[in-house]
Design a protein that fits this description.
By secondary structure, the protein is an all-alpha fold. It has two domains: 2-82, no CATH class; 84-113. Helix content is 68%, strand content 0%. The chain contains six helices and no strands. The radius of gyration is 23 Å and the shape is elongated. The chain starts with a helix and ends in a 10-residue tail after the last helix. This is Si:ch211-208g1.1.
């Protein structure tokens, strides 16, 4: 357990060093985030951070979560850790849902009876 904590701390330190450089390596960040997932979850879920300060403290500790790709990868790690295609599948499902909503919204507007000037709705 102690070796695991040391390894996790080393991964976190490496992650911090990567974000001090001007150009970050997205693949390296993703790999480090994968490796230190458990300790990050413990940090986020710990009572050491007040609820109202939680978002700020997480972004201070993990600046990579200011980038949408890393946030979506974290969502995948939480919801479907074994499904590496989860985010692309979710985006595909969203596109289908979004197009249906647009279609039904347009149809409802088209099918609505016109308003008249003579006291009609």
């Amino acid at each position: 357990f102690f070796d695991s904590q040391k390894t996790q701390a080393r991964h976190y330190k490496t992650l911090q060093e990567i974000y001090k450089t001007k150009k970050t390596n997205k693949a390296a960040v993703t790999q480090l985030l994968n490796l230190e997932f458990e300790s990050r979850r413990q940090f986020i879920n710990s009572d050491a951070i007040k609820e109202q300060d939680r978002a700020v403290k997480i972004l201070e500790a993990y600046p990579c979560f200011r980038e949408l790709d890393h946030v979506l990868d974290e969502l995948r790690r939480i919801i479907q850790p074994c499904n590496l295609k989860y985010i692309s599948e979710m985006k595909d499902r969203w596109e289908i849902f979004y197009s249906k909503v647009q279609f039904y919204g347009a149809m409802k507007k088209v099918m609505k009876p016109p308003k008249t000037l003579e006291g009609g709705n």
